[in-house]
Design brief:
Number of strands: 8
Helix content: 25-40%
Order of helices and strands: EHEEHEEEEEHH
Strand content: 15-25%
Largest sheet: 3 strands, mixed
Mean pLDDT: 84
């Protein structure tokens, strides 16, 4: 349900109203919710997609002692690094309902200046690809000076084999010293 519940006072007697906050939805009140719950023999509606300071909100609409008509659950703490809200999850275990709240924790690593991983890695990737292409062109042009056709695959495979042989020799030398 993408629509949002009305504020408590308006919801008591409300049906539907435009939702200028989302610009693509409506607010709904107690009357249509009661009809939906009764028609479908449901006890409550559980929904998300709306920031809640405590990570959840019980929409009881008038009767503070009754089971809520609607429960909004929002699991993202400090949403977008801006709202300073708690996150919450709903646990339903053998008919028992429990809401668990949690705070934002510092992620293990943040990229500098709020960069995303793609923006951060593109310069590195471009540098490596450019270097690789430069090496290929350089080797091919050196081999092509005599005017013969150059087999790029063979040149690169030969260089790779030479590099592998060099690594193996270094490892053998290290093993001999241990």
């Amino acid at each position: 349900m993408w629509a949002d519940p009305m504020k408590d006072e308006a919801a008591k007697h409300g049906e539907f109203a435009e939702n200028p906050e989302r610009e693509c939805s409506n607010y709904f009140g107690k009357k249509p919710v009661k009809r939906l719950l009764k028609t479908n023999k449901l006890m409550s509606i559980f929904r998300g997609h709306q920031v809640q300071v405590d990570g959840f909100k019980m929409h009881r609409w008038g009767n503070k002692e009754s089971f809520p008509y609607v429960i909004t659950i929002f699991s993202a703490p400090n949403y977008c690094g801006y709202y300073d809200n708690k996150g919450s999850i709903l646990i339903l275990d053998e008919g028992n309902l429990q809401l668990k709240q949690y705070q934002e924790v510092e992620p293990p690593y943040r990229l500098p200046d709020g960069l995303n991983v793609f923006s951060w890695s593109l310069p590195f990737l471009a540098e490596k690809v450019s270097s690789m292409l430069y090496t290929i062109v350089k080797k091919c042009s050196a081999l092509d000076e005599d005017g013969d056709d150059v087999d790029v695959k063979k040149v690169m495979t030969d260089d790779s084999n030479k590099a592998q042989e060099s690594k193996m020799k270094k490892m053998q030398g290290i093993k001999g010293k241990i």
